[in-house]
Amino acid sequence: MVDFSQNHFELFGMPISFTLDADSLAARYRALQKIVHPDRYAASGEQSRRLSLQHATLVNEAYHTLKDPLCRAQYLLALKTGESSGGQATLSDPEFLMRQMDLRETLAEIPDADNVQEKLVTLMQEIEKLIKAEIACLAIQFEESTPEQLLAAAQSVQKMQFLNKLRNEAETIEDDLEKDY
Amino acid sequence: MALLQIAEPGQSAAPHQHRLAAGIDLGTTNSLVATVRSTQAETLPDMEGRHILPSVVRYSSDNVEVGEAARLAAPSDPLNTISSAKRLIGRAIGDLKSIGDELPYEFISADSAVPRIRTVAGDVTPIEVSAEILKVLGQRAVDSLGGELSGVVITVPAYFDDAQRQATKDAARLAGLHVFRLLNEPTAAAVAYGLDRGADGVHAIYDLGGGTFDVSILRLNKGVFEVMATGGDSSLGGDDFDDAVAAWLLEQAGLSADVDRGTLRHVLDRARAAKEALAGSETVEVEIDLPQGGSWHGSLSREQLDSLIDLLIRKTINTCRRVLRDAGVSADEIEDVVMVGGSTRNLRVREKVAELFGREPLVDIDPDRVVAIGAAIQADVLAGNKPGDEMLLLDVNPLSLGVETMGGLTEKIIPRNTTIPVARAQEFTTFKDGQSAMAIHVVQGERELVADCRSLARFELRGIPPMVAGAARIRVTFAVDADGLLQVEAREQTSGVSASVEVKPSYGLTDDEVMDMLQASIDHAQGDMVARRLVEETVEARRVIEALTAALATDGDELLSTEERKVVDDALGNLAAIADQSKDPKIVEAAIKQLEKDCEFYVERRMNSGIRKAMAGHRVDEFASQEDPEAK
Asked: I need a surface site. Which of A119, B232, B292, B307 has the fewest CB within 10 A?
């Protein structure tokens, strides 16, 4: 059976840490899939195929979680605090809340602007910059992992969630732009 | 020794015996079959030496013709000659209107959601039409290889949705083929191309066929092909170029768009010929026989052709842009752009693709054959003919999968371009006090509104215990397997009530329909259902025995104690004896299940041992400072 007691870091044989080597993670992922992927069992019996499907699904999920900074932070937070979702915390950073409103407003105005493409690019760059800043914060917060720092990490996760959502919305606008042209 | 008993000729095989496998490119316009012989993948010709089989099926009252003969008969017998089954497969009658095709067939609505076409041989579904093509190609492989196939890989457009994939698999089942895997066409092309060059890096595959368009961005790393993103349009292709040219010719010749079907076919043929001729010259003369007698003469210049198809090409270029963004790479990071599909012979297409990626696309592998070649290579690997081979394909789901929530909105559960196999779950709750059932509507697509997405299935979770609104916790799990096929399960967490659906009935054939068709086709061949089932189960038994025998030869001694080894050997011997003697498919099936149950511990142990070894190898490779002993 798939060893569900292992956490994703253990499955990949990597230290439990927010900071990780992306190349090493990718190499381990490929090595794992070479062993468990259903293509390796295509000519085997149904049971082996099913087992391999379970393993490959788990490996994909673990890789997806560890690869993406937001998912990795959420997962790590759950591991460290024992709470399944860090999403309960409410954001209590007035400065960021103001920023959030500004960004929302900017995005809402874009479709009616004259130079949509240009404004969109500027906004996307701004979002990227803020995401990078949160990732840097998370690295420090998880490094220390004190209860206070973990609370701060939960706040950073909240901010990242908002920024990711905003980025998705901006991308949707970009998609629609290309369809028209 | 037990193993000797099962290695008798004709029953089972030594671990390294070459298993026969084939790759099939089931195209909109043309189809091919290829196989790997003495390390070289090659497409297989028919008796007359023709490799390409036109994907055309003609039904007459006592016969079914497939290929060139059917294609030639199309103008004189348009109603009984089906030439675009791939455009219809996995679609409902309602969808066909939205495809916008001027299809010359007579569709009839029946009780089934699957459209049926009226022919002199009775009503046929696009699935049965495709099955006829697959049968011919499967038989061609059997004839040239001189033995039964252990399995096939069938390619599908990367952008095919769940219903289209499921329908393709049903067609294979009707054709009596065991499908190892449905493989995405651009991925197949990448395999054919990548193995040819051993080029690590990020590549783009631009695949414009007769009726479908796909673009995939892949990263190739030491034999692992990782699809980063894919996109396309499953109803855009060279046929649309022909339609555009034909519409222009009709106008030039003073004919209305609703001429009779025979004339329409004739003009379409001339349009296609003119389009193809323009790949080699600047202008081409066109002659059209008019229905009222006499003929029309005119000419088509390349410039005119370009202006007719530019809008269509631009659609593909926009899709390329989106896919690049999804993959998170810019156009200049792409090392090579590989052109696949007959429509990439069009010079304007090449020009626009070169413009986007800033480099000349690669056209040196025959764009008609490259997909079948890639499929054959993959089939060979999947058959287990290359133990220790490094090649692995990691593909993605092309379209987001989700459920309908309140207000007709889509809640995505698995976003597009997620690596498969994948399983994701999400919790929902009731919105009324005492609500005892919940309707789950499964949709596929990128839009916010359910109405703009494709409806895949609806099912109900019943028996939810009475609770106040919002108290029930219904966990909906989506699982997509390596073929890209979806299964959905809903479970109420507090009571454990569950319901699941293999997403199938609403657009595909029901299992009963498939069985009926199988029965009918077997009656036709004077065969016997039980005999056929027996063959299938015996083949499956042989497959299981071979795989296990090969596994034992590799690591049986290492992983099993003497007692455990005896358990496995006994189970093997038992199945081999039953598969050899029994005439009842049910008994063979039960024996396979028994063997799998008996050997489950061994299979699991192998997989876990493999994982440990792979990770241990990495630990040695890397710097000690990156390792945390506590994390082990």
From this structure: B292
